[in-house]
Design the sequence.
């Protein structure tokens, strides 16, 4: 019998990828068809590309060879650049607070890092807690969401009691 074609009789579990991912053949069943109308499930096929996926990759080509005959089939895929993490690349100007102060993000720079290795500063992040701080607060949780993916990082802070007022004094008397 001679190989005529191959068919992907069960698609892989995963067809959507982030840049940098590798094709995952889990769940995929490839069936060889022969000139005598028989079929056989095969597993010793090759996939291309077999390198990290890029935005330009739109399909995976499956190639099966048997006794000098090759057959191919294709699977459409989607590849997106995906948010992987965020980092605080410059802390806020203030990290020491008194009880009842609120977190101040002035001066803080948050960068988003993506699956293709790129990164950029973001300004639409959120933080918790947004309420008045207590002595139990020692971390601010910073979150950023893009295309349904949320990344989180943390900023350490210190919160203490405001010093008690002991006295006041006139250090510069008025002219009159």
Sequence:
């Amino acid at each position: 019998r001679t190989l005529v074609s191959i068919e992907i009789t069960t698609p892989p579990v995963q067809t959507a990828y982030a840049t940098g991912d590798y094709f995952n053949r889990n769940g995929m069943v490839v069936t060889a068809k022969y000139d005598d109308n028989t079929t056989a499930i095969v597993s010793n096929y090759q996939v291309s590309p077999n390198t990290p996926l890029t935005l330009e990759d739109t399909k995976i080509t499956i190639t099966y060879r048997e006794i000098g005959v090759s057959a191919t089939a294709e699977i459409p895929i989607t590849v997106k650049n995906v948010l992987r993490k965020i980092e605080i690349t410059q802390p806020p100007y203030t990290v020491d607070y008194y009880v009842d102060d609120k977190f101040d993000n002035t001066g803080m720079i948050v960068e988003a890092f993506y699956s293709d290795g790129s990164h950029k500063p973001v300004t639409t992040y959120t933080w918790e807690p947004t309420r008045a701080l207590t002595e139990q607060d020692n971390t601010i949780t910073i979150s950023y969401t893009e295309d349904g993916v949320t990344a989180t990082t943390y900023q350490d802070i210190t919160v203490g009691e405001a010093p008690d007022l002991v006295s006041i004094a006139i250090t510069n008397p008025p002219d009159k």
About this structure: The mean pLDDT is 95. The chain has no helices and 16 strands.
